[in-house]
Specification:
Blueprint: H1 3-45, H2 49-59, E1 65-72, E2 77-88, E3 96-106
Helix pairs in contact: 1-2
């Protein structure tokens, strides 16, 4: 093993960990967005809020927090689903990023007679 290889090897290992972390950030964000969108659809249909939260928690990454909020503007009643999750670097747990996603849908159950 040459001296150059010995010097570069730790850098390559750190780079590999960083790439795994970046990919895990992307995957986690996609899962959060999908779970928020599905939760907003369920809540807009009028599903029970506890059922919505349970379903979203199953779809979201482990440890994600779920919030279902009713909102109103001038024309419509809407439902907002927000998710938050923390993604840590595989070996160095002190390096972490907080991700969040939200989805909004018109509340279809409010317009029913």
């Amino acid at each position: 093993m040459t001296a150059e290889t010995a010097m570069v090897l730790p850098f390559l290992v750190a780079l590999a960990f960083a790439l795994v972390w970046v990919v895990s950030l992307g995957v986690t964000h996609v899962r959060l967005v999908d779970a928020a969108r599905e939760g907003a659809r369920m809540a807009a249909r009028g599903d029970d809020r506890e059922d919505v939260v349970d379903a979203v928690e199953q779809m979201a990454p482990e440890g994600a927090t779920v919030e279902v909020v009713d909102g109103e503007d001038e024309a419509t009643t809407r439902v907002i689903v927000r998710l938050r999750s923390r993604v840590e670097l595989p070996v160095v747990r002190q390096l972490a990023v907080d991700l969040d996603a939200s989805a909004v849908s018109a509340d279809e159950s409010a317009s029913r007679p």
